[in-house]
Write a structure and sequence with these properties.
The protein is an alpha/beta fold and 162 residues long. It is built from six helices and five strands. It has one domain: Rossmann fold (3-Layer(aba) Sandwich), CATH 3.40.50. Strands 3-2-1-4-5 form a five-stranded parallel β-sheet, with helices on both faces. It starts with a strand and ends with a helix.
């Protein structure tokens, strides 16, 4: 069985993330969507809220997709879960440079785990969670960038800031 993982902060989940998830599911038998707990970042949504976003938007019940949160080195978590593929989405050359360096380090630490880069669809090539949060915080229209449930969560979160 081929187990893949798509790690990230998903703060918030975007349609670009969903595109990568959909394509990664076609490559592996089981896909783990893993929220990395990063103490250096100040997320807008709690880990529990982000897990709920992913579960609601990916219809994970009874499917080959699982959502989890983890701390520590990704490769250690991958080994513990039997993961052989790490999926990473790329939007632009800037993403590639950053992701390539991480992939090389992961390969050094865990030679048996491969990183698979999936290019963002053109309509999502500019979308980032940070950009979505910025636009949403000013009341901008993000309906084409995030699932409806996430849009509602963002509107609720920023409703007192306008």
């Amino acid at each position: 069985m081929r187990i893949g993982i798509y790690p990230g902060s998903f703060d918030p989940l975007t349609n670009g993330h969903l595109d990568i998830i959909g394509r990664a599911k076609q490559i592996c038998d089981r896909l783990i969507i893993a929220i990395a707990k990063n103490s250096a970042k100040q997320p807008l949504f709690s880990v529990q809220e982000r897990l709920e976003m992913i579960s609601r938007c990916c219809h994970c019940e009874g499917s080959s997709v699982e959502t989890v949160a983890f701390e520590g080195l990704l490769v250690d978590f991958c080994r513990a879960q039997g993961v052989s593929l790490i999926f990473r989405g790329l939007r632009a050359i800037v993403d590639f440079e950053y992701e390539y360096a991480i992939a090389l380090m992961n390969k050094k630490l865990a030679p048996g785990i491969e990183t698979v880069f999936l290019m963002a669809q053109s309509e999502y090539s500019f979308v980032s969670s940070n950009m979505v949060k910025e636009v949403a915080s000013y009341g901008g229209d993000i309906t084409s960038l995030v699932p409806q449930f996430v849009n509602e969560m963002l509107q609720h979160r920023f409703s007192g800031r306008k």
